[in-house]
Each structure stands twice: as structure tokens, then as C-alpha cells.
Design goal:
76% helix, mainly alpha
Length: 67
């Protein structure tokens, strides 16, 4: 209840959402370290997907790619 009153008095709704997300990440790290490592590994996989150009789109839609 104290946290809710603090949010209502000092934080915007957006700040409250970010604070709640950060608290959730902190709780996950503490309660489930293996789950936290798995989450970080999945983030790295997603980040690596964007490193190579997707040439299949150019082949599939040549009219939009100078073909």
C-alpha cells in the first residue's frame, strides 16, 4: 500500500510502469537466477538477428528493391 501511495504522490503513470518493470526484473534475478540467464540469452539471440541483412526480402519483392 505504501508503494501505491508513493506512486500516486510522486510519479507519473509512465514512471510508475517503468518502476514496476524494474522491480519485476530485480525479482526475477533474485528468485530465479537460471530464468534470468535464460532471459538474457534470448535477448542476445534477438539482438543478433538484426546484424545480417535479410536478402530474402529483396528476392521476394524485387519491385521494391530496384529489380
Amino acid at each position: 500500500m505504501g508503494r501505491k501511495l508513493k506512486i500516486m504522490n510522486s510519479e507519473s503513470p509512465a514512471e510508475a510502469r517503468w518502476a514496476a518493470m524494474e522491480e519485476s526484473y530485480t525479482r526475477l534475478r533474485r528468485v530465479d537466477p537460471a530464468g534470468w540467464r535464460e532471459y538474457l540469452a534470448e535477448l542476445r539471440e534477438w539482438e543478433n538477428l538484426g546484424t545480417a541483412p535479410d536478402t530474402s526480402a529483396a528476392l521476394e519483392y524485387p519491385e521494391y528493391n530496384g529489380g
